[in-house]
TrEMBL record, chain A:
Belongs to the KAE1 / TsaD family. Its cofactor is a divalent metal cation. Binds 1 divalent metal cation per subunit. Residues 29-300 form the Gcp-like domain. Substrate binds at residues 130-134, 162, 177, 181, 266. This is N(6)-L-threonylcarbamoyladenine synthase. It comes from the Eukaryota. A divalent metal cation binds at residues 109, 113, 130, 294. SUPFAM superfamilies: Actin-like ATPase domain. It catalyses: L-threonylcarbamoyladenylate + adenosine(37) in tRNA = N(6)-L-threonylcarbamoyladenosine(37) in tRNA + AMP + H(+). It is an enzyme of class 2 (transferase). GO terms for cellular component: cytoplasm; EKC/KEOPS complex; nucleus. InterPro entries: ATPase_NBD, Gcp-like_dom, KAE1/TsaD, Kae1_archaea_euk, Peptidase_M22_CS.
Automatic annotation (TrEMBL), chain B:
Keywords: Cytoplasm, Nucleus, tRNA processing. It is found in: Cytoplasm; Nucleus. Component of the EKC/KEOPS complex composed of at least GON7, TP53RK, TPRKB, OSGEP and LAGE3; the whole complex dimerizes. Belongs to the CTAG/PCC1 family. It comes from Zoarces viviparus. Component of the EKC/KEOPS complex that is required for the formation of a threonylcarbamoyl group on adenosine at position 37 (t(6)A37) in tRNAs that read codons beginning with adenine. The complex is probably involved in the transfer of the threonylcarbamoyl moiety of threonylcarbamoyl-AMP (TC-AMP) to the N6 group of A37. LAGE3 functions as a dimerization module for the complex. Coiled coil: none annotated. This is L antigen family member 3. It comes from the Eukaryota. One of its GO terms (biological process) is tRNA threonylcarbamoyladenosine metabolic process. Pfam families: Pcc1.
């Protein structure tokens, strides 16, 4: 029996989860929500995390009904993400690991999403579409690496959605993407936007500039409603993601798709991916907001796999890193 | 907690700042040192920071080219130190192996 506690705080969510051999014992989380029109800045986000992290840790232990002595390993997000929030979380993880006399383990955030998705859905060897506010990647496992088949060449798809939400001043509560999804359901008119797939890669910054410009002109002149723009943006960017995912499946001969990351809980994206999978006779795996959105259990789960395969991180090597590619990690826990 | 403010060292021409933090024991001082040491200063050059433990005191020394850079580094260190000390208060004392 192996119990791992995972600390996550690479963006505006702070979460601590405990995993015991594939079972989620607790997974409390807090989100730093900024006013409409504003994004989250690194130093403010770190301040938020510092203010709540010890309360969240207490909750995680209490909900799991565990004492520190019951834990075998302390996992935390090493990167990628925003520097100041990452440091905040790493500091607490390092301190409790030493106080409790437990080994420490630095986890790649993207690997956390993949391993949590695999655990929850039981997908065996899927093509992974990892879509969030900071990352957009199509990933396939091969020879001890999660290899990136396609990715964004500029901003993440979630960043494109978040920043559009700021332009039209949509609430960031519970998340800008969720509110865009609700508004998109009421959209009826498709406004044509640039479609930017380049080989296996995608680009969103041009689409964002275009829709920013279009929204100022079209909304003031009454040519369309904000709901139409939400609908059009979702249809366009999700089509791009489905296209590159399908191409990766064809290339690898894979019959499984797993969607992870915060944007992955968007039902319209899941629906569009589902149509493509059905046409190919493939299976779609996705999770809900509990596990799609950043959380502590995903770091605990990846940490569990790494720890069981013999990995630990020495304190002097436990520095955080804002850049940390998915394919930098050697996957020692899979064949 | 004792600090000496940013005095300019006349030999090196750099601003220097030092801080002493007392802990209940040398073990706790060492834990704080190991929690606070791994991350490098975000900016390259212009500032250096050195941490050491003597007895149950954690000592930190800064050396910087500009007061502005020194302030940012000291401020962020104090935020980090506060969090580590709060963590120790809530989840300590350390188990002895």
């Amino acid at each position: 029996m192996t119990v791992v506690i995972g600390f996550e705080g690479s963006a505006n969510k702070i979460g601590i989860g405990i995993i015991k051999d594939g079972e989620v014992l607790s997974n409390p989380r807090r989100t730093y929500i900024t006013p409409p029109g504003q994004g989250f800045m690194p130093s403010d986000t770190a301040r938020h995390h510092r203010a709540v992290i010890l309360t969240v840790l207490k909750e995680a232990l209490e909900q799991a009904g565990l004492k520190p002595a019951d834990i075998d390993c302390v996992a935390y997000t090493k990167g990628p993400g925003m520097g100041a929030p990452l440091v905040t979380v790493a500091l607490v993880a390092r301190t409790v690991a030493q106080l409790w006399g437990k080994p420490l383990l630095g986890v790649n955030h993207c690997i956390g999403h993949i391993e949590m998705g695999r655990l929850i859905t039981q997908a065996n060897n899927p093509i992974v579409l990892y879509v969030s506010g900071g990352n957009t990647q199509v990933i396939a496992y091969s020879e001890r690496r999660y290899r990136i088949f396609g990715e964004t060449i500029d901003i993440a798809v979630g960043n494109c959605l978040d920043r559009f939400a700021r332009v039209i001043k949509i609430s960031n509560d519970p998340s800008p993407g969720y509110n865009i999804e609700q508004m998109a359901k009421k959209g009826s008119q498709y406004v044509e936007l640039p479609y930017a797939v380049k080989g296996m890669d995608v680009s969103f910054s041009g689409i964002l500039s275009y829709i920013e410009d279009a929204s100022h002109k079209m909304l003031s002149s009454g040519q369309c409603a904000a709901e139409d723009l939400c609908f059009s943006l979702q249809e366009t960017v999700f089509s791009m993601l489905v296209e590159i995912t399908e191409r990766a499946m064809a290339h690898c001969g894979s019959q499984e798709v797993l969607i992870v990351g915060g944007v992955g809980c968007n039902m319209r994206l899941q629906e569009m991916m589902g149509v493509m999978c059905k046409e190919r006779g493939a299976k779609l795996f996705a999770t809900d907001e509990q596990f799609c959105i950043d959380n502590g259990a995903m770091i605990a789960q990846a940490g569990w796999e790494m720890f069981r395969s013999g990995q630990v991180t020495e304190l002097e090597d436990s520095w955080i890193t804002q850049r940390y590619r998915t394919d930098e990690v050697e996957v020692t826990w899979r064949d | 907690m004792a600090a000496t403010d940013g005095e300019r060292n006349h030999q090196t021409g750099k601003l220097e700042f030092s801080l002493d933090v007392p802990f209940p024991s040398s073990l706790e001082a060492s834990i704080a040192l190991r929690s606070l040491s791994p991350d490098r200063e975000p900016r390259k050059g212009g500032i250096s920071k050195h941490l050491a433990v003597t007895g149950s005191t954690l000592s930190v020394k800064w050396s910087a080219d500009e007061a502005r850079v020194l302030r940012v580094s000291v401020n962020s260190f104090l935020d980090h130190l506060t969090l580590v000390m709060e963590t120790m208060q809530m989840f300590g004392p350390p188990v002895t192996q």
